Amino acid sequence: MSIAERVSDLASRFRKILFVVGASFVLIWVLFFDSHSIFARLQLSAEKSELEADNEVMRARIARLEEQLSRPLTAQEIEEIAREEYGMSRDGETVYPIKEK
Fold this sequence. Notes:
Elements lengths: L2 H31 L4 H33 L4 H12 L15
């Protein structure tokens, strides 16, 4: 083997090694360090599905509340709300508020 062939072979190996190192660096950068990395995308996807589930729970709650608002309150319900939420009482009654821990 002549020196020219050895140099050519060495240069070819060097280019291959340089290509593998460069490709590995780019792959590691994209997987871990980039702002749009795979792990960031997985985390955002999990957060999105969690928020969508919370959104469905809130929509169901809103539907229940709208249904409650659509029907009129009875006198007993009005009295219960006045007593529990506003601390109102009838004449001659004494109200003792209880604080929950």
